[in-house]
Design a protein that fits this description.
The protein is mainly α and 301 residues long. The protein has 14 helices and three strands. A three-stranded antiparallel sheet has the order 1-2-3, with no helix packed on it. Strand 2 and strand 3 form a beta hairpin. It starts with a helix and ends in a 9-residue tail after the last helix.
Length: 301
């Protein structure tokens, strides 16, 4: 069994081009399912798995009140694994094709207002190397709508300040060129001149954004930085790096960008993923209308 899972992992990496996080999630889901099948039914080979085993596994997760989103992801992993088994002729029939992935209720992501983004930026202490780094981080992720993984994996060679663009490695190891705002160019230049060299210390690395130890800034490290900055700016909502990406997309839509251009900037493979921002934009416009138009709401009498 472990050799087949190992082949599946190789297939996801080399042929499907998935990210490490996605591959790890697939592998974890498959191992958890077969651990269950082995413990409960004594199954040791993929050919021994039947529909009833998968049904029982799904029911068990529902009884344990695992979220619909997590169940959907685990079922997707199992279905993709069995498609791979059929492709490799390890099985003669895909027993998962009749299983319907449960519908997930979509929640609109949190978005900051332009004033809230500005308040975060204005609260940064620019007298320290870390402050210069933080300014460059937030100007870049908000100004270009990058994923946090794309942002933190940027190397010095990827930044082209004179031409105002950056090369990032997105999902599926796909490279794309993303424009950089003038404010981000200015902040990155200041960080490179007066911040990064002081943080670099002994370790040699080409990663653009470093922590106080001189090593590459981690996802957790950036979360902590942003949490403190948003708290200092008296922002009530939970603010994450992805919140800034959502804000970037929403603010562009509110100012007239077309969906196809936004899709390209965000690196979305499917435009349906980009369309969620039209719902956010419409919601915000309605809120602004209700707050500002004198006849939008009936007065309480």
């Amino acid at each position: 069994m472990k050799y087949i899972i190992k082949d599946f992992v190789y297939y996801l990496k080399k042929e499907k081009g998935l990210s490490k996080n996605s591959i790890d999630a697939y592998e974890r889901d498959i191992i958890q399912f077969f651990d269950y099948a082995n413990d409960i039914y004594g199954i040791k080979k993929v050919k021994e798995v039947d529909r009833i085993h998968i049904e029982a596994y799904l029911k068990k997760m529902k009884r344990k009140h695992i979220s619909t989103k997590s169940i959907a992801r685990k079922l997707t992993s199992i279905k993709n694994f069995f498609k791979f088994l059929l492709l490799e002729k390890e099985i003669e029939e895909d027993i998962t094709k009749e299983f319907q992935t449960p519908k997930i209720e979509k929640h609109l992501p949190t978005v900051l207002s332009i004033d809230e983004v500005l308040s975060i930026l204005e609260g940064i202490d620019l007298s320290t190397p870390l402050g210069l780094r933080n300014k460059a981080l937030i100007e870049l992720i908000y100004g270009s709508g990058l994923r946090v993984s794309e942002l933190l994996n940027i190397e010095l060679k990827d930044i082209h300040l004179n031409q105002a663009y950056v090369i990032v490695l997105g999902k599926g190891n796909k490279e794309r060129m993303v424009p950089i705002s003038d404010m981000a160019v200015k902040a990155i230049r200041e960080y490179l001149l007066n911040g990064r060299e002081k943080l670099k210390k002994i370790m040699r690395t080409d990663i653009l954004f470093l922590n106080q130890s001189g090593t590459p800034l981690t996802r957790q490290g950036f979360f902590k930085v942003l949490k403190k900055l948003s708290k200092d700016a008296n922002i009530d909502v939970e603010c994450s790096p992805h919140t800034l990406r959502h804000s970037f997309a929403t603010h562009l839509l509110e100012n007239g960008i077309d969906l196809r251009s936004l899709q390209t900037l965000l690196g979305h493979e499917d435009i349906s993923t980009t369309q969620i921002y039209t719902h956010i934009s419409q919601k915000r416009i309605k809120e602004i209308y209700n707050e500002t138009h004198p006849r939008a709401k009936e007065e309480n009498k």
